[in-house]
Amino acid sequence: MFARVVDRGVSARAPVARKSTRASFKTRAMTRARIGASDATVHSSRAASPSKTTATPRRARGSRASTRVDPRANAVTRASSVASAESESSSNGGNTTLALAGVVAVGAVTATHAAGDATVRVLGSAILGSLLALVGYKKKSLDASGALAAIGVGFGSIYADARFGAALASFFFTSSAVTRVRADVKKKVEEDYKVGGGRNAVQVFANGFVPTMIALAFEFGGGAFGSSSALASAYLAYYACCGGDTWASELGVLSKSKPRLITNWAREVTPGTNGGVTALGWASSASGGAVVGAAFHVGQTALRAFASDGLVAHEPSSALVVIGFSALAGVFGSLVDSVLGATIQFSGYCEERKRVVSKPGPTVTRISGLEVLSNSMVNLVSGIITAVVAYALAPL
Fold it and tell me: What is the value of pTM for the model shown?
């Protein structure tokens, strides 16, 4: 009995196991068939377009890499932008201070002369000359040697005549202000750019020694050096030349059009080249000269308004004559400066520093000019020529 039960149980279960086994084999066979068909399709696709299947993943990876931004690069860019904005803000703030200092200086010079007292005039001139130098040093318009030289220049001009002191203050403060304009651009163009100018004693004397001597001749010469009109004209013309040249150099370099060499108008030159001129530069030179003339006129007008009768000896000049004359002197002085710069002042392009330089060298390609005069000497010579012409014309 037991044998039959066992046989019956085995016989009953066996067919189910065999059926399940057959179904499993059939399922696995169908799966293999599908996988084989899929593999065949993939191989077929790869055989038909091999470049497409291999290049696509690389392009995807490349695309992701190209859009990925290095955080450090972002940080550097942000820092550069912030520094540039801070520099521009500092420059604007410095220019405002210089403008206010110029206005105060003109008023103080006038007050010193309007008092009519010799002691006040001496002490006032000495104090104002020192303050002018101190402000210039603090604002980086002068270095230490330049500040010391400016004290003497300031005292001589301020003491001699209120108009002279006003013209000097106007030239100094406005020239320092335009030097700060777009400092970020000038650093890439100018060889030895310094924010504010940083003028040394040589540069101060190049711009200030001759007019200081003219001022002292005006005050103490007693007519031995010519009429007061001729000396006043020479003084104003000299500083109008200096102002016009400084404005042209500092603002003309920002022109969107390339400068042309003044001795060869058809030739375009690199910005910063001595003797290179632009329309913006000419307009700036006229403006720089006119501003000096306007301060000269304000000085004489204010002095006549506040000084006691008989204290002012010179005849008044009209605003149109004074400002027009100084604007022409600014343009004429810039013209002379540019011709000298293009012919007897060296300009070359340095491949290593990527800018115009004033000295020859192994990596420097000459642009124009001979290495005869330095920039300070060119300024001195052009100022003297302008003053001599004005002295002869004596329009004031």
Answer: 0.74
Of the candidates 253, 132, 252, 295, which has an alpha carbon nearest to the alpha carbon of residue 204?
132
DSSP assigned state of 190: -
CA distance 247 to 282: 9
- Backbone phi, psi, residue 142, to 5°: -130, 145
Token pair in block for residue 336? 């002379």
At residue 382, φ and ψ (nearest 5 deg) are -65, -35
Buried-exposed string 158-188: b where 16+ CB fall within 10 A, e elsewhere: bbbbbbbbbbbbbbbbbbbbbbbbebeebee
Q: How far is CA 242 from CA 124, 166, 171, 236, 291, in A?
A: 25, 15, 8, 10, 12
Domain ranges of the chain: 98-393
CA 43 to chain centre: 66
Give average pLDDT by consecutive 10-residue segment, the chain, 396 residues: 40 42 49 50 44 42 45 47 46 65 76 81 91 87 91 93 91 88 75 69 90 94 87 96 94 91 94 93 96 92 71 72 96 97 95 89 94 93 97 88
HEC assignment per residue over 31-84 = HHHHHHHHHHHHHHHHHHCHHHHHHHHHHHHHHHHHHCCCHHHHHHHHHHHHHH
User: Helical H runs in the chain?
Assistant: 2-48, 50-67, 71-114, 118-138, 144-160, 162-180, 183-189, 201-220, 228-252, 279-306, 319-344, 375-393
In this structure, what is the dihedral angle of CA atoms 103, 104, 109, 112, given to the nearest 10 degrees?
150
Q: Return phi, psi of residue 241, to 5°.
A: -60, -45
Query: Any residues with CB less than 8 A from the CB of 163 and at least 6 apart, and which?
Result: 232, 236, 296, 297, 299, 300, 303
The single-letter code of the amino acid at 220 is: F
- Phi first, then psi, for residue 278 (nearest 5°) are -140, 165
Residues 356 and 195: beta-carbon distance below 8 Å: no
User: Is the separation of the CB atoms in 100 and 55 below 8 Å?
Assistant: no
For 246-262, give the DSSP string: HHHHHHHTT-SSPPEET
What is the spatial distance between Cα 12 and Cα 251, in angstroms, rounded to a whole number?
Answer: 109
